[in-house]
Specification:
Elements: H1 2-17, H2 21-50, E1 54-58, H3 61-71, E2 78-82, H4 88-92, E3 99-103, E4 108-112, H5 120-136, H6 140-149, H7 161-201, H8 205-210, H9 215-248, H10 250-260, H11 266-291, H12 295-318, H13 332-340, H14 346-374
Parallel strand pairs: 1-2, 1-3
Antiparallel strand pairs: 3-4
């Protein structure tokens, strides 16, 4: 009789613990909006610090015409217009210009305000532009002679597409990964406190004890729901991050697609990463939820679990070692970077998943004992 009751009780706990479709949608909105906002914010910051506008003020329209024709292709972010030093402040503080080059009869000034300068690249390009202007304004004939004297100028960038993305990927995967995992942990904490710790507060724990089924079976039924919903929130968060990158950082997204799109291995790699994190996060919070008889205490100590998750997600920032690839949650950033250079390695992902599953199994046994002991 006892064995026949096991599936029935587990199914009952599954139905009792799972959320309604409306509750599930509301829960998934949090990681969705969080990931979208973060990707937008990081894309905005990147554009803000790398893009700029600069102005070149010349004395006559003829000079503007000549310099724009020759230099506009070299300095596409510079506008060429007539003006004097009296116009500098008005242009500089218009909110659209990072620096102004003022060309006078004997002087070329680069004017900027360090308190509002958004891109250091603007000053580097302004220095180059000023040097070109000083040569050009000496006279067209001299300029043409110099052009024929010096070899043709050619710019060669030896960095790969992945190397150009490297810094952005470090920031994006680190911050977005941490937030997505924290959202997963937050959902796990809420469900664990409500469905596990809450049994005592609702005075339903005695009924569970009387069931002819070990408590760990009942706890497993609850934990399977927790796994399902935490996994769903992780998928939604990562999906939102990818969509956000496609919308607000299309150039980098296209580059990643060109590199990683050669091999569909990125999809199972992402699924394994999320599943690994789900098992570990669920394990942490079912133990915390089972260790306390009051929801307030369980919620209070859940902050320790949140800290553990966030620290794990940020480990690659502080530890430069291949060993990080084997640590659940911490292996998110290395895996994202491996996907972006088309070098996914399942020999590190699968051991991390196996370790997380083992931790989950141990957590079920430990949590069932803590649950029974702390609810007596």
């Amino acid at each position: 009789m006892r064995r026949r009751h096991v599936p029935h009780v587990m199914a009952s706990e599954w139905k009792k613990t799972r959320k309604t479709p409306v509750q599930l949608v509301m829960m998934l909105l949090v990681p969705l909006l969080s990931a979208l906002f973060l990707v937008w914010a990081m894309s905005y910051v990147k554009d803000f610090t790398t893009s700029y506008q600069a102005a070149v003020l010349l004395e006559t329209p003829a000079q503007c015409e000549e310099t724009e024709e020759l230099l506009s292709s070299v300095y596409p972010d510079f506008s060429f217009r007539t003006g004097t030093k009296e116009d500098v402040e008005k242009i500089l503080y218009s909110g659209y210009t990072d620096c102004v080059i003022v060309v006078e009869e004997e002087t070329i000034r680069i004017v900027y305000d360090s308190s509002v300068l958004s891109s250091s690249q603007a000053l580097k390009d302004a220095a180059d532009c000023a040097a070109d202007l000083s040569v050009l304004l000496e006279g067209r004939e001299m300029y043409e002679e110099l052009q024929s004297f010096y070899p043709e100028k050619e710019v060669v960038d030896l960095s790969t597409d992945f190397e150009k993305l490297n810094t952005y990927l470090d920031q994006l995967s680190g911050v977005v990964g941490m937030i997505v995992f924290l959202m997963m942990a937050s959902n796990a904490m809420t469900i664990a406190v409500r469905s596990i710790t809450g049994e005592k507060e609702r005075q339903t724990f005695d009924t569970l004890v009387l069931c002819p089924v070990p408590l760990r079976k009942i706890l497993l039924g609850k934990s399977l729901v927790l796994l399902q919903e935490v996994f769903a929130s992780g998928i939604v968060g990562i999906g939102a991050a990818i969509a956000g990158m496609a919308i607000w950082n299309r150039r980098d997204f296209t580059t990643v697609c060109r590199i990683a799109g050669r091999d569909i291995a990125w999809l199972p790699a992402l699924l394994i990463i999320i599943l690994t994190a789900t098992c570990l996060i669920t394990a942490i919070f079912i133990v915390i939820g089972s260790a306390f008889a009051e929801a307030k205490k369980a919620s209070l100590f859940s902050s320790a679990g949140m800290v553990l998750v966030s620290v794990s997600a940020m480990l690659p920032t502080f530890i430069e070692s291949d060993g990080v690839r084997y640590i659940p949650i911490a292996n998110f950033t290395p895996t994202i970077k491996a996907i972006c250079r088309n070098d996914v390695r399942f020999d590190t992902l699968l051991p991390a998943l196996g370790a997380a599953v083992v931790v989950f199994g141990i957590a079920i046994i430990l949590a069932s004992r803590l649950w029974e002991r702390n609810c007596e």
